[in-house]
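thoughts on my protein:
***
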Amino acid sequence: MVETKGTAYGFFYCEASKDTIEREIPSLKVAGRVPNLEVLLYDLGDLSKIDRQLQDFFNQQTGAGDLNYVLKGILTGRTNFETARQVSHLLMQMDQSYLNRLGEVWGNVVYQDDSGRFVFLA
């Protein structure tokens, strides 16, 4: 039996460098109570390398605006929706961390619903 892996994406703005954010992710996962969330951080410009359908959705729905990072969250044994909620918790922890003192952290979480369409976490 193939094990399910939920995937979701957090698009966000942060003035901190990618290296600084990556160093903070382990402590943010603990604070956000999402220790099992696998996290990959990308510059927004690398979105086409992640998922072309996701890039198309993003461009149609929001465009880049001031956003500069994409956080891909993966949770084994969970749905995309459940993973999206965990990614949202992680982004909230970023906003409450010292990263916010470097400039406001804000963003949106997107996941694929059961029909395969990308949607925003409400």
